[in-house]
Amino acid sequence: MTRPRLATVWLGGCSGCHMSLLDTDEWLFELAAAADLVYSPIVDVKEFPHDVDVCLVEGAVANEDNLEFARLVRERSAIVVSFGDCAVSGNVTAMRNPLGDPEGILRRVYVDAPDRDAQVPHAPGIVPLLLAQVRPLHQVIDVDAFVPGCPAPAGRIREAIEALLAGRRPPTTGESIRFG
Amino acid sequence: MPHTVTIDPVSRIEGHAKVTITLDDAGSVASARFHVTEFRGFEAFCVGRPVWEMPSLTARTCGICPVSHLLASAKAGDAVMGAHIPPAAVLLRRVANLGQIIQSHALSFFHLSSPDLLLGWDADPARRNVFGVMAAEPDLARRGIRLRSFGQSVIEAIAGRKVHSPGIVPGGVANPMSAETRDDLRDRLAEAHATAQNALTLFVGLLDGLDREIRSFGDFPSLFLGLANDEGVWAHDGGHLRFVDATGAVVADHIDAADYRDWIGEAVQHDSYLKSPYFKPLVDRHDDVNRGMYRVGPLARLNVCATMGSPLADEALAAYRERAGGIATSSFFAHWARLIEVIAATEQMATLLADDTILDPMVRATGRISHPRGVGVSEAPRGTLFHDYTVDEYGLLEHVNMIIATGQNNLAMNATVLQIAREWIDGPDIPEPVLNRIEAGIRAFDPCLSCSTHAIGQMPLAVELLDASGARISERRRG
Ligand code: SF4
User: Fold this and answer.
1) pLDDT above 70 covers what percent of chain B?
2) What are phi and psi of A110, to 5 degrees?
3) What is the pLDDT of residue B144?
4) Which one, out of A102, B117, B180, B329, has a CA that is 20 to 30 A from the CA of B389?
5) What is the pLDDT of residues B389-418, one digit of tens each?
6) Which of A20, A58, A137 to mutate to test the pocket of ligand 1 (most atoms within 8 A of CB)?
């Protein structure tokens, strides 16, 4: 049997979901024995690979690069998991949505506040344009499973990964979906 | 002839750092730029939120150092309430911040940087990560994981959770500490301390082979900013702001956090979402902003302080200074500085936990909104962090400014990228290990791009070579 190929990515999030994954501590040795982590912010593989079995996606879809990357992840992964509340619902990353046009928000931060060189950063191909509205992952690609939490506690993440690697869906009752 | 490396467009993944390098006509590096590409907009959407909610909300800026945001935010809240927080709360906040320094530095050293140091710059990229270290040096990796876990447990014990804890609030902390919890943490201190000492010995043993990295990973004069107490002792919470220069001379001292605007200006670059703070008194309107370059974080804190304030950390500091020649000007030494700070954190945590005041049940002051503005400052693991709030009479935010540690290193990170490029690039054909070193040079700053953006550690990186007219002649992309 070939070893399952696991990936984790982050889009518009705070990395807290990944930190909570690392909070599984020494269980990481068991994870390493059970699966190959083929792509992740904490490993040095630079191109999202083909034939990923399970991909956990942290963060909401906030800019054009997020959108393009989410689509790539979908194309190359059998199971895509919304990992944490930003991916599940938009959460804190989506709090800019009620303010409307990102241009106004950018002006507030980069034009009204600074002491010098005030300007909205703009460098095509280098800094991506913000989407008009931040979206949860399932609004831009099909998602197969959800692991909520901000972040999900380490135990919940471990449970979810164990289920996914065994070909099951993460539990969706009681403690496993408690808010917060 | 410059050759073009084909890029697979799908590798353009979001929110990561990017580097562009310009070659002059002779083919040598003329300039290099570090770009940050993520934006979340806290300063805009926090307007209108109640000040009491701000610690929990702004913790979500960063999952790696949420406690620093909790602290800076709670302190800004203390200030608008005019709250004099109870002694137990002072101690508990301090222990929580030491826990955070331990976990974040352990992450930086063991999980993110040790693969380069232990497996080599040109090790197989598929293995050059914490899992590779777990396979090659299981004992060391396990110790590192346990060290980070200890720091996280300290945070959980005081503030309620490991990531995004609710328990640090304006006026103090939410819950007192039980004697049982205190004893439990004390029992685990010895192992944490031993792990830090071992890592220090290991790191120092590697230094002799790393001369060229030391001299090219951000080795240049700059100012340094950090907190120090009135006697000049290393401080991570409390104390005052102090700037020193590259000779160690104190440039500005005893600065109150509320006055930071007199000293720190913020500039914007057209090609990055990360702002560039600078030391205001040295930069006139038309000057190059780099005149005001300063660094924050472990390297800066150790340059700013006279002593660490605990015996074993001071011993380590003396050896460090001897090797670095007094003031450490190479950002490569930040790895070393981090380990010394972990030693200090374990020693000082032992002292704080031994004080029974920490068990006092009175941990929170309450108060009404009494001042329109509050500034909170804390030393995040990667440097000084400011939260500056203006509130209305009900405590709703009218204006928010946050100066993030990593931003303050932005000018220096740009200079580092340039230095590494000049040292290692020879013509448009860039070998893989050189790209690795550019990354590692940025990683030495332990940039928490989550704070301003996201992306820790092994960030994907694109290097573009432009000719003097700005036309792209080749691109190498990893990510
Ligand atoms: S869900 Fe919470 S912890 Fe996860 S990325 Fe979003 S803000 Fe951070």
Assistant:
1) 90
2) -105, -10
3) 97
4) A102
5) 999 999 999 999 999 888 899 999 999 989
6) A58
| The residue count for chain B | 479
Q: What is the mean pLDDT of residues A24-28?
A: 96
Q: Is residue A69 part of a domain?
A: yes
The shortest CB-CB distance from A93 to any of B40, B64, B138 is to B40
**How many structural domains compose chain A?**
1
How far lies B150's CA from each of B104, B144, B146, in Å?
11, 10, 6
Q: ipTM of this predicted complex?
A: 0.93
CA–CA distance from B388 to each of B209, B377, B406 (Å)? 44, 9, 17
Give the pLDDT confidence score for residue B2 in this predicted structure: 32
**Per the domain annotation, does A126 fall within a domain?**
no
Domain CATH code at residue A20 = 3.40.50.700
A114 domain-assigned: no
Report the predicted TM-score, pTM, of the whole model to 2 decimal places.
0.92
Burial class for B254, CB neighbours closer than 10 Å (0-12, 13-18, 19+): exposed
Q: What is the overall mean pLDDT for chain B?
A: 87
- Contact status of A142 with chain B (Cβ, < 8 Å): no
Which residue puts its alpha carbon closest to atom 5 of ligand 1?
A: A13
The reported pLDDT for the residue numbered A2 is: 83
Indicate if the pLDDT at residue B134 is higher than 70: yes
Tell me whether residues B63 and A13 touch, CB distance under 8 A: yes
> Does residue A31 fall inside a structural domain?
yes
One-letter identity of residue B229: N
Q: Give the number of beta-carbon pairs within 8 Å between A and B.
A: 223
**B63 Cβ inside 6 Å of ligand 1:** yes
* Sign for the pseudo-dihedral over CA of A17, A19, A25, A31: positive
Query: What domain range includes position A80?
Result: 5-100+131-171
